[in-house]
Amino acid sequence: MKSKKDIANERIRLLVDKGVSEKNPRYVELARKIGMKTRVSMPKDLKFKFCKKCGTPFSADTHRVRINSKKNIVVYECLKCGHKTRFPYVREKHL
Length: 95
Ligand SMILES: [Zn+2]
Known about the structure:
By secondary structure, this protein is an alpha+beta fold. The protein has one domain (4-88). It is built from 3 helices and 3 strands. The protein has a 3-stranded antiparallel β-sheet, with no helix packed on it. It is globular and about 45 Å long. It binds zinc ion. Zinc ion binds next to loops.
């Protein structure tokens, strides 16, 4: 049987996916609310899909992407709210 958390997780995933494909921050907002209500945290892989501050899904026309190869980070600058989200990136190793 599925627990409440499993159901919440599923819903969050569906909403974020929908928000990303439709570029609509509303779905992301809804997903966050469900997370808060049910005390389910956002799955790690979904955190890389939208702006933390305003919920705008990452895409080429809403965000500026910069790569800082010295520090090995990728910076997504949200063009809507100006928030900068930094992600560490791991260089693929070809040996
Ligand atoms: Zn933003």
